[in-house]
Each structure stands twice: as structure tokens, then as C-alpha cells.
Amino acid sequence: MDYMMEEKFIIQGGKPLKGEVEIRGAKNAAFPVLSATLLTKETCVIENIPLIEDVLKMIKIMEQMGAEVRWTGERAIEINSSKVKASNLPRDLVKKFRGSILLAGSLLSRFKSVEMPPPGGCVIGARPIDTHLDAFRQLGVKISSEKGLYSFSRKSLAENKREVVLREMSVTATLNMMLFSAGFPEKTVIKIADYDYQVQDLSSVLEKMGVEVEANGAREITISGRSKLKGFKHKLVNDPIEAGTFIVAALATKGEVLVKNAELSFLDLFLKRLKDFGADFQILDQKTIKVKSSGKLCMDKVQSLPYPGISSDLQPELGVLATQAKGPTLIHDPLFEGRLRYLDQLNKMGANMVFCDPHRAIIYGPSQLMGIEMPSSDLRAGSAMIIAGLVAKGTTTLHNIYQIDRGYEKIEIRLQKLGADIKRRIKT
């Protein structure tokens, strides 16, 4: 394959990871919290911001719309959106990552109308925004589309309907409806809602702004908003997906890693299944886990499901781990039809597997993986292929690592501190 000038990772595998790693703020929690600052004209403070590509793009979008942004520390910012204009939305940046769709809810709540292109992001299937559009329409929003541009407009607050049933359990659609409803004084009921870490973190922020948020066990969230919302100070939740990535990397390389600042409460089933598979780890406190060198892992099934199930974002990492486990492991991702594409690369590395359909595959382990040259097709596939490279014999060259930088902050430096032989290079 002919790769253009780009950055790449060169990995020499076979070394167990050893040491300590601290988990950073969650990028998927940063997007809705940044969007929430658009709901108020008061100053907002956000701490624990991950310094990664997509989050910095989101901040740049807000600046170009007129927000005043001041960095008060390495990972802390003050934002005042009193001068923001929806008409200044930079369409070129919006098209580059999926998290930008959350701007629709906030801007529509505050300005009554907004025009924006569909968002970009990882290519892991169709990933349409139909669920968002359908939900907005249920709440009285008029939407039209022409020449790749969506136009949203709403009536006065009192004229909008107050209940929405999501057509699927979507994290981003849940967040968008929460942001949109926050500016309405009446109650809004969101049914078939997701309640993953991003939703819980945004709930905390909205409550600080004066919104009443109530969640029950029936996948239902009630938002009682206000026409005038307050500013807030908030520390972003640490990224449970990043924590899961380092946990699997330690297990796959038969290492010993202390993972700190991990939001383990969002990884209950993930950790339970690892324990079932024979993984050796010790939970020291609510945010610290010590992963030890395992004996023989024996996995049976990995199925990704909405929270509190195992996140689809961690399914590729577990697929790599399955290549090192004894016997067959069924990998089932019912959420995204393209999430298993990374298995094509694992197959080329020597993994033994059978593809059942776009959502299912069976991996037979253990297999000695061999280093190859390959692309990073998306963010989570990229992080999984790093783990595969760390396990493999020989040299693995991973291209298109821009995808990985979108979700992991300086991952190669943090892995180097754990003893990994991984280098970032620029192809000339």
C-alpha cells in the first residue's frame, strides 16, 4: 500500500508492560460538557481536559463561533460564550469529527435555529444521525437538508412537545436531547435513553447550571430545564475506555501494570468478564487497579452492549486478547456493522479466525502474531492494533495514526514509560 507523507508508529513486540500509568480525562465526556457552555452567557470552567486532536478541534470551533477561551492551566480552561453566534459555525471543522453533532442541541436550544453539515468521525459502519434527527422532530424541530447541509429550526419553548422516544439506545442522541431540553422551563422526558459515563457526567454539569435531571431504571431521563442557566466549574470524568485499553495491553503482553485514576465503576461487566476469563488483577480502591501477569486465559464470548454492558469501544482490544487465549472466543458486536474490520489485520498477523457475518467472528487461540505493515482504520481499531503490535513477534508498522491521536493523548510516550518499544516516525 502506498502511504502519503504521514506519522506512523513502529513497534517491536514481545516486551511485557511494567510500571504505572495515569488515566486522562474522557474525550467523549469533553464534547457534551464543552457544548453545555453554549447554553449560558456566564463563564464556565472545565478541568481535566484531555489534550487530544478532537477535543482541541471542538474548542477551536467554539472560538471561531465567538467564545472567549482562556487556558488557566495545562488541562483547564475558562469559556465565556456570551458573544457566540450560531451563524459563525465553521463547517469545515464540524465535518471532521462525530462529537460536533452535540453542538446542534445546545445551539438550537439557545438560538432557535442552526445550520450545520453532518459530522465526521470513525468509519465503523453507516453511523447515520437519523436517531438525532428523529428525536429533534419529535420535540417539534423542523429539519431540512440541501446540498449536504442540515437546517434546524424550532418554535417557542412552550409550543414544543415534551416527550421523546429514541429509536435506538444512542449515547450521543441522549446527550443531544439533554442539551436541547436544558433551556426549556418545562419537563422533557427522554425514553430509551443511554446512561453511560458521558451522560452521567453531563447530568452533573446540567445540575450545576440549575437544571433538574432525574434518571430511573427504565432507561428514562427527565430534564427540567431553565430559560436562564448558570455558569459552572467541573472536572471531567476520567476515561474508562482508556483505562480498559491499558488493562488489556497489560494482560496481552503478560505484564504488570498499576492503572491509576481509572473510573472502575463504569467497567463492572468488563472486569467481571476478564476475571471469568482467568485474568489476574487486584482492585486497590475505586480508581486504582493492579493488573498482574496472567497464566493461561480462556475466553468464551465477548459481546458489546450499551451501558452497563461492555462498551463497543473496548471490543477490538478484547478481540486482540482473544488471540492469546486458549480455545475459541465468539466476538459479537451487534451495535456497529463495521467494528470488526480490524480482524482483517489480525488475520494477516497470523490470528486464526472464522468470520460469521459483519457482526460476529470466532477467534481460535492462542496464536503467535507476526508484525506487519498496516493502516489504522479508525480510533479503536488503531489502539487495538497497537496492542497486537506489542504482542507480535518482529516489527509492526502502523500508519494513519492520526486516528489514534484523536482519542489517546501521547499514547506512545505513556507506553514507552511502561517498557514498550514503540516509536513515532514521520515518513518522508
UniProtKB/TrEMBL annotation:
Location comes to: Cytoplasm
Q: Which residues form the active site?
A: 122
Pathway membership, UniProt: Cell wall biogenesis; peptidoglycan biosynthesis
Q: Where in the numbering of this chain does the Enolpyruvate transferase domain appear?
A: 11-412
Which Gene3D superfamilies does this UniProt record tie to the protein? Enolpyruvate transferase domain
UniProt keyword Cytoplasm present: yes
Q: Give the GO biological process terms.
A: cell division; cell wall organization; peptidoglycan biosynthetic process; regulation of cell shape; UDP-N-acetylgalactosamine biosynthetic process
**Which residues are listed for phosphoenolpyruvate binding in this entry?**
27-28
Name-wise, this protein is: UDP-N-acetylglucosamine 1-carboxyvinyltransferase
Enzyme Commission numbers on file: 2.5.1.7
Domain of life, source organism: Bacteria
Where does this chain mainly localize?
A: cytoplasm
The modified positions for 2-(S-cysteinyl)pyruvic acid O-phosphothioketal read 122
The family database entries (Pfam families) matched by this protein are listed as: EPSP_synthase
Biological role: Cell wall formation. Adds enolpyruvyl to UDP-N-acetylglucosamine.
Question: What is any one of the record's Gene Ontology cellular component terms?
Answer: cytoplasm
Name the reaction it catalyses: phosphoenolpyruvate + UDP-N-acetyl-alpha-D-glucosamine = UDP-N-acetyl-3-O-(1-carboxyvinyl)-alpha-D-glucosamine + phosphate
Q: Which residues bind UDP-N-acetyl-alpha-D-glucosamine?
A: 98, 313, 335
What organism is this sequence from? Answer: Candidatus Nealsonbacteria bacterium RIFOXYB1_FULL_40_15
**The keyword Cell division is annotated on this UniProt entry:** yes
Q: Which GO terms describe its molecular function?
A: UDP-N-acetylglucosamine 1-carboxyvinyltransferase activity
